[in-house]
Amino acid sequence: MIGSGGFRTFLERKPPKMKISPFKLERYFAKYEFSAEYILCASDCESMSIADLLNMEPEAAEKFKEVWLGYTESQGSPALRNEISRMYETILPEQVLVHSGAEEAIMNFMLAMLTEDDHVIVHFPCYQSLAEVAKGLGCQVTPWRAREEMGWGLDLDELHRIVRPSTRAVIVNIPHNPTGFLMPKEDFLALNHFVQENGLLLFFDEVYRESELDPVNCLPAACDQGAHAVSLGVTSKTYGLPGLRIGWIATKNTDVYNRMAALKDYTTICNAAPSEFLAELALRHRQELAQRNLNIIRSNLTVLDGLMGRWRDRFTWVRPRAGSIAYPKLIKGSVEEFCEELVRRVGVLLLPGDLFDDPTNHFRLGFGRTNLPHAVARLEQFLAQSP
Fold first, then answer.
1. How many CA atoms lie within 13 A of 68 on its CB side?
2. Class in CATH terms, 70-285
3. Whether residue 12 has pLDDT greater than 70
4. Smallest Cα–Cα separation from 220: which of 194, 180, 192?
5. How is residue 237 annotated by DSSP?
6. Which fold, 24-48+287-385?
7. Ranges of each domain in the chain
8. Residue 40 carries which DSSP code?
9. How far apart are CA 12 and CA 175, in angstroms?
10. Which of the two residues, 18 and 79, has the higher pLDDT score?
11. Alpha carbon 85 to chain centroid distance?
12. pLDDT digits (tens, 9 = 90+) for 173-224
């Protein structure tokens, strides 16, 4: 049962032996991100300066100067947790745990809740840490594969087939990176029902929530569906503020919360006071920030529609329904060689699908930044010169 055993039982479990593989995507970015002229694979939306963010409220700049540079509360400042809780229907501030970005939260969840005897089901392809940390702990990991022929959808019947008696958690990312898939609400509710019925944990990566092309299709938060679920959020993606390094989990599950909070004492301990102030300010204006980036996304999608139409002999794609990323397929040739040549010759960076352990010749394309039309023009220059 979820939450059974308590913290004492957790401490008595056999400690994991962590063997984690290199983060391929991050190593690829380290090689090219700060030298390529155009990052046409960025997962985040257009950012802004501290000055622009402070200008969103009349007295914010003066208040920012007064931020005390001492330690902050480990769980996150009460004001920030209160602002985050307003994003949900039933979550209280004390059910929010703030982290240094989403990555720390992913790591702490898996360290807190998984052992090497557990089986984990992971939405695939995925951001590597959503699967790799569990693998590193010795868990058996089964991919729940997005199906391109289903518009990158997930087959719920397949989930029923791959669950095992040893399954501990289901890890899902919706809206999805890298495909831009948005799960229908009926499937979302069915997924939550299945997880609850089987006594599992649902770790729901919602970092692109509120970036749906049609806001009517925005799903409820998983954490609002019951104590089986943990919602992951961040300031980086929809709101375009990755430099703040602020992420969080929201959950009604006190056992999960307490275990993760205990582990945070061994990672960042607490968050940076300036980042917490700026994140609180940003989230008070999150709808304005999201709308700003949605305007960029919609404009850029029109550009991409033209690109895909003009080069349908080179690419196929499923047009995304949410987020700032898409996952087109290169029809001929090696996508790895294509991406290497593209960045070397014209300074445009794309992410080949092998960085997601996907050998199907797809690549990630990001369209949340204002310079996309210039990057696409450079890409088309390259295509015109390539056989």
1. 5
2. alpha beta
3. no
4. 192
5. S
6. Aspartate Aminotransferase, domain 1 (3.90.1150)
7. 24-48+287-385, 70-285
8. T
9. 37
10. 79
11. 19
12. 999 999 999 999 999 999 999 999 999 999 999 999 999 999 999 999 999 9
